[in-house]
Amino acid sequence: MAERRGLWQMILVQVGWHISVSAFLLGSTVGSGTNFRTGITAILIGNLVLSGLAVLIGIVGFRAGLTSYLISRVVFGVRGSVLVSVVLGIIAMGFIGVLMDAWSAAIHRLVPAVPAWTIIVGLAIAITTTAITGFKGLARFKSVAVPVEILIALIALVIIMTRDGGFAKVLAHNPAAPITLTAALGAAVSTWISGVALVSDVSRYARSIRDVVISSIAGFVGGAGIFEAIASISAMKVGNGNFVLVLEGLGLLLPGVIMLILALWNTADNNLYSSSLAFTNASRILGAAVPRAAWVVVAVLIAVVTAFAGFAAEFLKFLTIIGVLAPPFVGIVVSHFWLLGRVREASDRLLSTAPLVRWEALIAWVAGSLVGYHTTFFVKALNGLIAGAIVYAVLVLIREKVFGRQAAADPVTTEGTA
């Protein structure tokens, strides 16, 4: 409890994490493909859904004081959590690598004297300095970055809205290549569903359930949602959701570059922190006492390699991968603790009673991923989440019905719980 933080720090870290350059990419997609009402509705509903899921998982992290990867031990089993940790850890840093690639190229085009590779390396060093010290480093940096980002975004929005037809031009926007509300909603959910999966890494520092709820809503709606909406409005008004290029056109190149760097740094150091926790969890289970600081370096190298591989053009495909693999994990965790009522179990016994492998969870993860990948109706990410949750609950209930709850559990172990 001595490590718990106040509400303001929780809000800063959550909002800073979710003010991401991915908001500008999503905003460009939604803003160029929808009218104002459809676009804002998709962004609002998508982030409210994410907020609700984040609250459910965040409360588990708060009550137990566990990272998302220690929670995965409880749900997937000690050995089963190794696979979860490696997959989610690589996804988190691969996503950052794609963003590094996209935005280092953007900065290079605006400031040709600065090579793109130096921007990638510089960002890698920067995010390492804040992530390596854990929550304290994240909170310290975001206390400076978040107010600056909000100020720049508001100034840009005011300038955009007061020029060339005002807000009426946004309301009159008709996309040349329209996308459906469902497609826009799916993009909004997929962009930050991995953040929901990792939210316990932050929420475990909260002092109360109230703080978990407020900070989660602030992060997804106030951070991701508002910046996605601003980027969408920008795309509708001037045809571009890339705030750096928009600000350059307004004669505000330096604020645009600052905005971009802070937004990428804010998200990347949180993902780096979570990935290092993931790899630490996996290594300890496998018997390797590698310190978290070393895994911070390994995780940032994954992002750098991804960036140099040039995957920026595949951003939407990368979102598809995240939208297939991350939602079932979220659904299974919600199902375990809330649908099956395990949230009421004593938090100090969660790890000590974890089985070696919980096959129901692994089967449900595969099933949910397949449903999310193959379905074409509704929102693919939510389809996978719901399928994973239902399959897991059904398999657990069947097993307990056949063998009884105690007998159905795998042999328990305290392996790797340090």
Provide a descriptive summary of the structure in words.
The protein is mainly alpha-helical and 418 residues long. It has a single domain, classed as Orthogonal Bundle (Hydantoin permease), CATH 1.10.4160. The protein has 18 helices and no strands. The two termini are 18 Å apart.
Please tag this protein with its features.
418 residues, mainly alpha, Hydantoin permease, 18 helices, 0% strand, globular, Pur-cyt_permease, CodB
- Span from first to last CA? 18 Å
Total domain count? 1
Mean pLDDT: 87
Largest sheet: none
| Contiguous helical run count | 18
Q: What is the name of the CATH class?
A: Mainly Alpha
CATH architecture: Orthogonal Bundle
Structural class: mainly alpha
From N to C, what is the helix and strand string? HHHHHHHHHHHHHHHHHH
For the CA atoms, what is the radius of gyration? 21 Å
Q: Tell how many strands the DSSP assignment holds.
A: 0
In short:
One of its GO terms (molecular function) is cytosine transmembrane transporter activity. It is found in: Membrane. The protein is an all-alpha fold and 418 residues long.
